[in-house]
Automatic annotation (TrEMBL):
This is Enoyl-CoA hydratase. It comes from Mycolicibacter sinensis (strain JDM601) (Mycobacterium sinense). Coiled coil: none annotated. The lineage of its organism: Bacteria, Bacillati, Actinomycetota, Actinomycetes, Mycobacteriales. GO terms for molecular function: catalytic activity. GO terms for biological process: fatty acid beta-oxidation. Residues 71-93 are annotated as: Disordered.
Length: 296
């Protein structure tokens, strides 16, 4: 199996760059990709030479979010003999869908993302094109976000799945409360300039110079002593936590699971409400459909 995540070091090992390497699916996140990504972050964290980690993505788009359509991703979510007993049916009865979803999403989506947020390195997300739904989770886990001038940010799970937002529910903190409501209720996207004005994005560069400019930015930060950089990171994260960030994340995750339970129980997994005609059914939507959507 080819690597879905690439890892390289630059500047005598002081900077690690991790690449999402699934451009043919617009870097849709299968669980195999997330496991490889976690391994790459752990590798950078364990390397005392590395001071800054860049999270980048190959291809036109940073990430189309969770992979809901490929055969490989569907196989990853099917019950099997090697999975946790609560994932399997019991004596021919209906599979406990809610329990399975809760356990898997806690592990693959929520716990992973929280751990990456607290990584013992300074992290920079390098974003071009679309960062959709779970793509936001990856960049929000980073300390800094640098965007190409063609970057667009959106969470479409509300209009596509009838959900309150993705599992790592940082929307009010990153967008602001009213903008978060607007974007989640409409499925509209935020461009790089507006994301910069909101403070979510630190720098905006031309798409052709994004990689080089991000590396220059990382070099400036890598000059700071490691302990000083980590003290700054810890102080800012602690301030956000004191304002309720981590508790809000946990609450948001459980509300997300409530959405799954309602969706699963209602009318044999059909949508509880009719979708607008321009929004396709999630069961037939592919990652490429998400990434091609040109939102206003």
């Amino acid at each position: 199996m080819s690597d879905l995540v690439d890892y390289e070091t630059l500047d005598d090992g002081r900077i690690a760059r991790i690449w999402l390497n699934r451009p043919e699916t617009h870097n849709a996140q299968s669980r195999t990709l997330l496991v490889q990504l976690d391994d790459a972050f752990a590798r950078a964290e364990a390397d005392d030479t590395v001071r800054v980690v860049i999270l980048a993505a190959r291809g036109a788009n940073f990430s189309a979010g969770h992979d809901l359509g490929s055969e490989g991703a569907l196989a990853e979510r099917r019950p099997g003999p090697d999975q946790h007993p609560s994932f399997r049916s019991h004596g021919g009865t209906r599979e406990p869908v809610v329990e399975k979803t809760y356990l898997q999403e806690w592990h693959y989506y929520f716990s992973n993302t929280c751990r990456w947020r607290d990584l013992r390195k300074i992290t920079i997300a390098q974003v071009q094109g679309n960062a959709i739904s779970a793509g936001l989770m990856l960049i929000w886990a980073c300390d800094l976000i640098v965007a190409a001038d063609n970057a667009r940010f959106s969470d479409v799970v509300g209009v596509r799945l009838g959900m309150p937002g993705v599992e790592y529910y940082a929307h009010p903190w990153e967008f602001g409360p009213r903008k978060a409501k607007e974007l989640l209720l409409t499925g509209d996207s935020l461009d790089a300039d507006e994301a910069y004005r909101l403070g979510m994005v630190s720098k905006v560069f031309g798409v052709d110079e994004l990689a080089d400019k991000t590396l220059e930015f990382a070099r400036r930060i890598a000059q700071l002593p490691t302990m000083a950089a980590l003290l700054i990171k810890d102080s800012v994260n602690a301030a956000a936590d004191a304002m309720g960030f981590t508790e809000a994340l946990k609450h948001g995750f459980h509300i997300h699971q409530l959405g799954h339970a309602h969706w699963s129980a209602h009318n044999d997994n059909k949508f509880p409400v009719a979708l607008p005609p321009e929004v396709p059914d999630w069961r037939t939507a592919k990652a490429t459909d998400l990434a091609r959507r040109d939102q206003p």
